[in-house]
Specification:
It contains 17 helices and no strands. 51% of the residues are buried.
């Protein structure tokens, strides 16, 4: 017992995970700066809404085009090196973008290309980072849950709290500054990851390839489809993403037309979401330990359903802020639990490919939800997507219960670990 206790402390305080955490926080802050400054830079070139949408699509498109082959790379190579090369590639893209801005040669085409390439780098980095967490902290549920919660909190604080206001302020001083700052954040992140010393756990697939890239992609998809628990989690999360995309896609319209908020009020709703998400990420480990992973997922989905429904029924800004805070907390807690379960259940050699396949399923819900939200709001009013989304999440929770209750998830984790 004494040795086990010592090992637990060593895992929690290990320098390897702390470096990954630090790299995540630094790069997330740079990403938040970039996310705030990029639309402003686009508007310096053109005021076209289509132009703005092209940049957004360019950021999201790599998850559809690149995630499956990226999963193969993550499973074949040292995951530390994948993260370092992803950071190095994004650093190079931003150096080029900074040069274009300084020489006044930047245009919409270059911005779309830069957004796409940065999105590709993010796909590789995110997949490798999630797959590497068990390498750094073990596959124990408590350690994985704590690690994933801290990583989620670092991402939220960097991308939603610190990064955006800093990026906007720097852009006002000089258009090039937030992009230069983002480049430095990727350089710092890459150096931190590179400083992690490799061992047998981080070189998952340094041996001979198991087959062609296509065969390995198919193997990851088949493994996901063949596992009842992860298949259910992917489908249910994808359906939930339909509601989330409709909710956030129509939020600006809801804030103006129903809540009567100015632009700064809309920003405060997003801040409330980030506050809740930070709390959800930090508390997810303790809550899942106390109530069980299944309860966190199912109660979380039902709770988000309530919050979304209330947003569609109550025209009060303070209530809306509380509902957005609840949405952020419950969604992030679910995401941490799902990541932990996936890392527990999936064999290490397949983790990158199964993760990328799951992400593909989940990401499909984004454009579907955005389109449905727009159609419903246009036909029946902006409140309709929220009312329909809340009811839909209740139905999703009922359908998910047999596969995702505490007993079913505990049994699935035990079967794979035995």
């Amino acid at each position: 017992m004494r040795t086990k206790k010592h090992d637990n402390v060593k895992v929690k305080l290990g320098g390897r995970f702390h470096r990954l955490f630090g790299a995540t926080l630094v790069s997330a802050t740079g990403t938040g700066m970039h996310a705030a400054a990029l639309p402003l830079l686009v508007l310096q070139i053109t005021s076209s809404p289509v132009a703005l949408s092209l940049v957004v699509v360019a950021v999201e498109l790599p998850w559809v085009l690149v995630s499956l082959p990226a999963g193969v790379v993550v499973d074949r190579l040292d995951r530390r090196r994948v993260m370092v090369w992803a950071d190095a590639g994004r650093f190079a893209v931003l150096v080029a973008l900074v040069t274009l801005i300084l020489t006044s040669l930047v245009n919409l085409a270059w911005l779309v290309l830069a957004a796409f390439l940065l999105g590709v780098g993010q796909v590789f980095f995110d997949l490798a980072a999630q797959a590497a967490v068990p390498d750094f902290v073990s596959r124990d549920q408590r350690h994985l849950s704590a690690a994933n919660g801290r990583i989620a909190a670092a991402e939220i604080n960097g991308e939603d709290f610190v990064g955006p206001p800093l990026g906007s302020a720097l852009f006002a001083v000089g258009h090039v500054l937030p992009f230069a700052g983002n480049a430095l954040s990727f350089a710092a992140s890459g150096l931190l990851i590179r400083s992690i010393r490799p061992d047998a756990t981080t070189t998952v697939a340094s041996g001979a390839p198991r087959g062609s890239a296509r065969a390995e992609i198919v193997e990851g998809i088949r493994w996901l489809l063949g596992n009842r628990t992860l298949r259910a989690l992917a489908v249910i999360t994808g359906l939930s993403n339909v509601v989330a995309s409709a909710q956030f896609g129509m939020l600006a319209l809801l804030a103006k037309q129903v809540l009567g908020l100015p632009d700064v009020g809309f920003g405060l709703l997003l801040t409330a979401t980030a506050v809740g998400a930070t709390a959800g990420g930090l508390m997810s480990s303790a809550v899942s330990k106390r109530f069980g992973s299944g309860t966190v997922i199912l109660a979380g989905k039902a709770g988000v359903g309530v919050a979304v429904l209330v947003l569609g029924l109550v025209a009060n800004a303070w209530v809306a802020a509380l509902m957005m805070m609840a949405t952020g907390a419950l969604t992030t807690a679910q995401n941490v639990v799902v990541s932990t379960l996936r890392q527990q259940i999936v064999p290490r050699r397949l983790l990158g490919r199964v993760l990328s396949s799951s992400r593909m399923v989940v990401m499909i819900g984004g454009p579907v939800g955005a389109a449905l939200g727009g159609v419903l709001a246009d036909a029946f009013g902006v409140r309709t997507p929220y009312v329909a989304g809340g009811v839909f999440l209740f139905l999703v929770t009922l359908v998910a219960y047999p596969r995702l209750n505490n007993r079913a998830l505990a049994s699935a984790a035990e079967d794979e670990s035995s």
